[in-house]
Specification:
Helices cover 12% and strands 42% of the residues. The protein has one helix spanning 2-17; strands at residues 29-35, 38-39, 46-53, 58-62, 68-71, 82-92, 103-114, 120-124. The strands form 2 sheets. Strands 1, 2, 5 and 8 form a 4-stranded mixed β-sheet that branches. Strands 4-3-6-7 form a 4-stranded antiparallel β-sheet, with no helix packed on it. The longest helix is centred in the N-terminal third of the chain and has 16 residues, at 2-17.
């Protein structure tokens, strides 16, 4: 009986050792699309796609109409902390009723360092 209790206690300690400091679950990264530093609201037919890559992992998302976005692993959950290159694709479908032209622009968004204390990304779509 006593050896069974010690065995179960040992298994519990091994299980706890794998829990780490909580950062292994990843970082809940989020962001906002801006234009010249000012928040952007996307129009009908307008899409901003954001890609973060660190050479090993790639994470993609689209901004919501209010310009905000979140970045997660494909199955959900936070992304690993670290430095990422940011790529942006900003596109809009043509709208003959509003007489707006279609466009698609790809942009290098620079680099961002995602950590538990810095999990917010600003994506500047600039010019158009």
């Amino acid at each position: 009986m006593r050896s069974t209790g010690l065995f179960l206690a040992g298994i519990a300690l091994i299980g706890l050792a794998g829990c780490g400091d909580g950062t292994s679950a990843g970082v809940a990264a989020k962001g906002q699309v801006v234009k010249g530093g000012a928040p952007v609201k996307l129009e009908d037919g307008e899409v901003v796609s954001i890609t973060l890559t660190n050479g090993k992992d790639t994470f993609n998302t689209n901004a919501f109409p209010d310009g905000n976005f979140s970045i997660q692993k494909p199955g959900g959950g936070g992304i690993p902390a670290g430095k990422y290159k940011v790529s942006i694709v900003h596109q809009r479908s043509a709208d003959p009723y509003k007489k707006t032209a279609a466009f698609s622009h790809k942009k290098d968004g620079g680099e961002v360092d995602i950590s538990a204390s810095n999990a917010t990304v600003k994506v500047d779509i600039g010019g158009k």
